[in-house]
# Entry
Amino acid sequence: MNNKYIIKSTSHIIISNEIKRITKDIDNVSYFSMNDTELDDIIVDASYFGFLDTAKAIVITDFTYFGDKFKHEEESNKIIEFLKNLDERCTVIFVAASVDAKKDFTSSVLALGVELLDFSNLSKETIKNNVDTYVIDNKLILDNNAYQEIYNRTKGYLDIIIEEIKKLSLIDKHITLAIVE
# Structure
């Protein structure tokens, strides 16, 4: 079982769904943003297991080391060592908007068995499947021609499509082309 992931996406919906999928059997999930948390604090938290913890997950958002132009040599070395010695009961999920697989650091991390889940270019089918899931989960009805109109107006951006459906569902739970127009 893999316990190390990179989620490459700018869609909050995709990121949230993937985190839920990966951590579905894990009760102890901690979230950290690289914008306001020191790397050492994340590593310490990941290394600690409570008395009753059988598994835990660490989600690290706003992770730029895989894609930016800067070399974060000291931090990169800490991450590589951390991943090499990761307790098998701990799942680590890096969330990054940009991942350059040719970058030395990224290549080194991937070589350690980290799975890259790349959702940077969503297909129309993936977008439609996510919309259908949202519609079903929220007990809505979305006509196909209404969906097409929303898709075209939003240029196929999943998060905006879902937000538009949320707004339209306040008018009626059965979203038709007439409501969209």
Notes: The longest helix spans residues 124-137. The CA atoms of residues 10 and 97 lie 5 Å apart. The beta strands are 4-8, 28-33, 56-61, 90-96, 115-118, 141-142, 174-175. The two ends are 48 Å apart (CA to CA).
